[in-house]
Design brief:
heterodimer, A: alpha+beta, Ribosomal Protein S5, domain 2, four-stranded antiparallel beta sheet, 5 helices, B: alpha+beta, five-stranded mixed beta sheet
């Protein structure tokens, strides 16, 4: 199965959207069905699998000890990596991460980092020497559009169920004790991606709409309704008015999802 | 180096580098600076010093990357190891890969790509010195370089950032404000089409402050735009004078 769309179908999708309808029957600002499974990878400290329609993303969190960055000696380290695994789409190829997977990882990273979702200052073991390093690995398993929202939501929910090993420091040595405590978190940002098709904004574009869209915009929204990360993507443009409309829409959709996910 | 100032803006609303909230850094643009490139531009934006060279439209290498109905644009944003206080490895970082992508996507809407099927242009951005806002300065220069290569454009793309520092929304953040400040909103804009072609944000900002920042960045772009046009004209005025002599 190829993901190429015929011009006829592209036109059909665009025409329907101009009339306020979508090929899969959704309203313009509806998300697809979201299901999240938490903690399915027992060997990871935290994990979550999200189904956003047919898009499937698994996020695993590993917590290890390591050195802090020199400019933040009292803070733990967050590392986000994304893999577009070849089994997820006929168009994904094995090999080193390309610009799409790097962009995906960096968008998710910014949402988590800037909203201060993780209390990194509580992850310090010994200032300047030893801190906890939180590795967030995004595994895209089936690509059917909008992997940004799927990955961002799955990453936050994997962090929310991450268990930190208990430890004590003895003569400068870190000893891991039995038992776990939850990863200290301050915020649960929700990322909403919108695509521009014609003069309409649609929420959660699926793969066929992504091939018709001129550009997309993703916004991460925290509990207070503040924006903590934005990324425009695609080779098109938005008018400033459209961007403000998107910002308003993202607020509403994030609040709605927050209620649904009970975050 | 690690001493973070407590306040970046004093009581009179003056920033650490002496600017007002909505004031740009000094800007200098020059077109046609590289003899071998088909188009080139140099920008000094505050302490940022960036060179952009454009090659093409030319045959794509490798050939299979070419498209039968349009031109392909490739972009490489790269920082010199000596451009920042601590030496940066010359190998492309993840940040540079992402910036190459967003810069390309910010320029693409300005180019009439369907006029040049099966060809490609390469936009090479070399940051010689970085002081915050390099992606914006790079876009402003890259658009000039593409124009200098003779590629038909819908409009020049001009870029400028706004952001939040302490409690104030300010224009055109420099390195320290970017690092210590609250939020940074880089924007690329085509003034004649009222089109935003690059928008990113990191940091926490309320929707109202975001609106202020976006408008401020767009106004900043509108101030740089005439300088960009002037730089392009200057090159051809010089050529004209040489021919007439």
């Amino acid at each position: 199965m190829s993901t190429m769309l015929t011009k006829v179908k592209q036109k059909q999708i665009a025409q329907l959207i101009a009339e306020g309808k979508r090929l899969d029957g959704r309203g313009l600002t509806d998300h697809r069905e979201i299901t999240i499974e938490e903690g399915l990878i027992e060997k990871a400290e935290g994990s979550a699998r999200i189904y956003l329609g047919k898009t499937q993303v698994l996020v695993g969190v590993k917590v290890e000890t390591g050195e802090p960055f020199p400019d933040t000696p009292n803070e733990g380290v967050l590392t986000v990596n994304a893999e577009l695994v070849p089994l997820a789409s006929p168009n994904f190829e094995p090999g080193p991460p390309d610009e799409n997977s790097i962009e995906l990882a960096r968008i998710v990273d910014r949402g988590i980092r800037e909203s201060k979702a993780i209390s990194t200052e509580k992850l310090c073991i010994e200032p300047g020497k030893k801190v906890f390093v939180v590795f967030v690995d995004i595994w895209v398993l089936n690509y059917d559009g909008n992997m940004i929202d799927a990955a961002a939501i799955a990453a936050v929910s994997a962090l929310a169920n991450t268990k930190m090993p208990n430890y004590e420091v003895e003569d400068g040595e870190v000893k891991i004790k039995t038992g776990y405590s939850p990863l200290p978190m301050k915020s649960h940002p929700i990322t909403v991606t919108m695509a521009k098709i014609g003069d309409k904004l649609i929420v959660d574009p699926w793969i066929e709409e992504e091939q018709v869209m001129e550009a997309r915009i993703s916004m991460a929204i925290n509990e207070d309704g503040n924006i903590c990360a934005i990324q425009k993507g695609g080779a098109g443009f938005f008018s400033p008015q459209k961007i403000l409309e998107a910002s308003k829409l993202a607020q509403d959709k994030a609040a709605e999802l927050r209620k649904k996910l009970d975050w | 180096m690690n001493d973070k100032p407590e306040k970046l803006i004093d009581k009179k609303g003056v920033r650490l580098d002496g600017r007002k909230a909505d004031e740009l850094r000094p800007l200098r643009l020059q077109v046609g600076v590289l003899p071998n490139a088909d188009g080139s531009a140099y920008i000094e934006h505050g302490k940022n010093k960036i060179l952009v060279g454009v090659f093409g439209p030319r045959e794509m290498h490798p050939k299979h990357l070419s498209l039968s109905d349009r031109m392909v644009i490739r972009c490489r944003y790269h920082m010199a190891p000596f451009s920042v206080p601590e030496r940066k490895s010359p190998a492309p970082s993840r940040r540079e890969v992402e910036l190459s992508k967003v810069i390309r996507e910010s320029l693409e809407p300005s180019v009439f790509v369907d006029l040049y099927p099966r060809t490609g242009i390469d936009v090479f951005v070399e940051v010689l010195q970085a002081d915050g806002g390099t992606r914006c300065a790079a876009i402003t220069a890259a658009s000039l370089a593409i124009a200098d290569a003779g590629v038909p454009l819908r409009d020049l793309v001009v870029a400028c950032a706004a952001g939040k520092v302490d409690d104030t929304v300010v224009l055109d953040l420099y390195d320290l404000e970017d690092k210590v400040g609250v939020a940074d909103v880089p924007v690329a804009y085509m003034p004649n089409l009222n089109a935003v072609t690059l928008l990113q944000m990191d940091g926490v900002i309320s929707p109202a402050e975001f609106e202020t920042a976006l408008n401020m960045a767009v106004e900043g772009c509108k101030k740089i735009y005439p300088l960009q046009k002037e730089a392009l004209k200057t090159k051809y005025m010089t050529v004209k004078e040489e021919v007439e002599e």
